[in-house]
User: Fold this.
Amino acid sequence: MESRDHKGQAVPLDSSRRSFLGVLLGLASTFVGALLAVPVLRYIFYPLTANADDSDWTEVGSVASISDVQTPLRRTLDLKQRDGWRETASQPVVYIIQDGGKLRALSAVCTHLGCTVPWDPGRNEFVCPCHGGTYSADGKHISGPPRRSLDSLESKVSGGKLMVKYQYFRPDVPYKKVIS
Ligand code: FES
Assistant:
């Protein structure tokens, strides 16, 4: 490389000036590269860094509208679950019950083989349509093939809304074990 003197004649750049420009160029390239890498890394690690607290909870409804529930109240959730980069939607059924003055949520999945269990107001119990398993109004197993009671779900009140942490549990075992 060369520069020009006041008469317009070519003058070669000294080596220290050239090396300074080289370092400057290298730093600028590194800086730009780092800037471009940020969104790529955020995309790659999104499933690991996504805020699980927000996505785990699903709204059931306002507490005011369900607080005087006398018999199990059926609600269908609008659930979105993330598995890595894949998001799946489902509409599982839950029942809201009163338990000692507090609202509690039950999964409607039969603990035998996973059929959705409806509440039978005539019999005042849950009756599974698949193999006839029955549960009391608070979800306790009464009769039939299920080996445990209906699974209760974590719930909380936030901003006047009842929120449920919906989970699936292993069927046909006598204990409650989360599978997703
Ligand atoms: Fe409910 Fe079998 S699936 S009793």
Remarks:
- The chain is about 25% helix and 35% strand.
- The helical segments are 15-44, 46-49, 52-56, 63-66.
- Residues 65 and 159 are 14 Å apart (CA to CA).
